[in-house]
Amino acid sequence: MRAHASVLHLDLDAFFAAVEQRDKPSLRGKPVVVGGTGGRGVVSTASYEARAFGVRSAMSTREARARCPHAAYLSGRFEAYRSASAAVMAVLRDCSPLVEPLSLDEAFVDLARADLPDLEVATVSALAEELRARVHQVTGGLTASVGVASSKFLAKIASDLRKPDGLVVIEPGTELALLRPLHVSVIPGVGPATVERLKRAGVHTVEELERVSQEELVRLVGKAQGQGLFQLARAEDDRPVVADRETKSVSVEGTYEHDLTDRPQMGAIVTRQAGEVAKRLRASGLSGRTITLKVRLYDFTTLSRSSTLPAPTDEPATIARLARTLLEDLDTSGGVRLLGVGVSGLADWIQEDLFATTEPGEDATAEAAPEAEPDQAGARWRSATWAPGMDIVHAGHGRGWVWGSGRGVVTVRFETAETPPGPVRSFRADDPDLERWRPPSEEQPAEQ
């Protein structure tokens, strides 16, 4: 551990759902679930109102609907999340040059590189409060929970202690006193299966875990996880904050509240992410040759595996097939807290992958937000199926979002972040007055 509490962890609260509530006034204070909305969908984020009914990230959408049938189930708007994330990361980089993003909604910051007079608890606490206020301002009202401690491990635990919208600073010298009474599940990678194994051995708290020898832990949970638990139970974590370098790629990733251990579930998540990446590639007129799978394990170890095609593609089935193959080669038995799929080696042309296959019963885009295809003039976006939550604009009624669709009808609620809750209207799915709305910065220039 460091001598000072100089590692900050910031985590945006229920990020995707919070962005939806910010932009959709009628959903504020109500249960919102963002993720795959189909039969094989997986919850990406649930608002705190939905969590009160037992809905959580990585849960199947089917189970979420059974627990909270009255929630709003939305397919998500990556552009909105990316914009809010960029604003937050800019605030953090103004504070320190060493910012390590873990995903769109969380990051570590090395305060030892910040312009501070000292690293005393009062000083870092004041900075953390200032950061939370600035995040709230630049995102239009989103909240963040922040932890500050002498290591990454402890800073992450601290940020979880007073969620949502909380701040915890662990004073140097008090780390073990805070850690020992906590349940073992606070340690990354200790999911339900590991909790049960430790419980059978009479281990419930971190203090009890600390008394177990490394040899016994290895016997109980395996070598890799056992060694990691032995160190973390003693608050031993000297990993530095490492700033990510920007790469020319298109990627989608998600961090999960509970570590993933089910391989079929991980495969479904990777398939959905591949569909989202392909959608973004096509929207930008791009393709790519190198498919990369990013996995962050329970102990924050980040693994990256890639496979390169002979020619660029934007085909979701191809991207999903390669990403799943990369996943199969990794040992994820200890638990996974982040999964991501990316495509790099970008080009503006496509050669079809003649050998791409879709597994029986599989639709690589089933859990991606449906995209309408442009007509020949490229001026309007229409579809027989509109994704729930999608931003739209109507020639007569203005801007709104898709409330629901089916049987050739799309229902729209007309409201934005700047308006009161708006009215609901239904239209034919192919109504020429309806089109998808995009922020001005993402609108495609008209062809000359």
Task: Give a short synopsis of this structure.
With 448 residues, this protein is an alpha+beta fold.
Structure description:
With 448 residues, the protein is an alpha+beta fold. It has 13 helices and 19 strands. Strands 5-6-1-7-8 form a 5-stranded mixed sheet. Helix 4 runs antiparallel to helix 5. The longest helix has 21 residues, at 263-283. The radius of gyration is 23 Å and the shape is globular.
Keywords:
448 residues; five-stranded mixed beta sheet; five-stranded antiparallel beta sheet; alpha+beta; 13 helices
Helices, strands, pairings?
Elements: E1 7-12, H1 15-23, E2 32-35, E3 43-46, H2 48-51, H3 61-67, E4 72-74, H4 78-95, E5 99-103, E6 106-110, H5 121-138, E7 144-149, H6 152-161, E8 167-169, H7 175-179, H8 192-200, H9 206-210, H10 214-221, H11 223-232, E9 249-260, H12 263-283, E10 287-297, E11 302-313, H13 316-328, E12 336-347, E13 373-374, E14 381-382, E15 391-394, E16 398-406, E17 409-413, E18 424-428, E19 434-436
Parallel strand pairs: 2-4, 7-8
Antiparallel strand pairs: 1-6, 1-7, 2-3, 5-6, 9-12, 10-11, 10-12, 13-14, 15-16, 15-19, 16-17, 17-18
Helix pairs in contact: 4-5, 10-11, 12-13
Helix content: 25-40%
User: In one word, what is the shape?
Assistant: globular
- Please state the average pLDDT score: 85
- Over all CA atoms, what is the radius of gyration? 23 Å
- Structural class by helix and strand composition: alpha+beta
Strand content: 25-35%
| Cα distance spanning the termini | 60 Å
